[in-house]
Amino acid sequence: MPKVIIDKKSYHYAASAPASDGENPLLFIHGSGGSQAIWTNQLAGLGQNFLTLAVDLPGHGDSEGAPCPEVEKYSDFIFDFTERALGAKVILAGHSLGGAIAIDFALRFPDKLSGLILICTGAKLRVSPFILENCKAGKLFPESVNFSYSDFASPDLKKQAILELENTDPHIYYNDFLACDNFNRLDRIGIITLPTLVIGAANDLLTPAKYSQYLADNIPNSQLRIIEQSGHMVMREQPEQVNALIKEFVMSL
Which domains, ranges and CATH numbers included, belong to the chain? Predict the structure, then answer.
């Protein structure tokens, strides 16, 4: 897996590219406790048309460093990463916490982006104190997967998610959930003028479709797509639909 070095630490990412040079590179940012692995279907599908990257955030997956309790610090990391890995404008796509990072990045560094894709996320991401307290105490609950995936998800997909959960340090989730809980850009979201694709899921229990609707209503140059028969992990539950929407959006830029 390729990597970049930032402040003497290694940060890993996955990449896929078409045979010929492609324009409008895509960079995917995972959500809380995740890794670049959640974007496998996007790299495989979209990498046929565009340079497509998915990064492990600090302290996640194969990346060194430490998870951050502040969205702004993750956003700083994405700035450093894109400067080293790409050195060009990018379309930033984020899921959940990754969407919060993408929003913060778009507000702070709009000149570094050619587009924005916000997937099952919101302008504000509150987290239950119960979840924060248990993650801080080192407790994770496999049954929580049922909140991330809809009833339409296959049993194998849920088993994979449980395995990933059990193999992740609870304190990674704790820091990520703290970052989410402290995130609030409700009063600034309208400043974003970049072309923006907002993707929500009809059966998302964590960031309900109304969150996506709010983003689309308040980001001037945006379009909203709600995918049916999917929960929060829409890129895994309905990868072909997600990929088709992203491809259409990128081709329109």
Answer: 3-252 (3.40.50.1820)
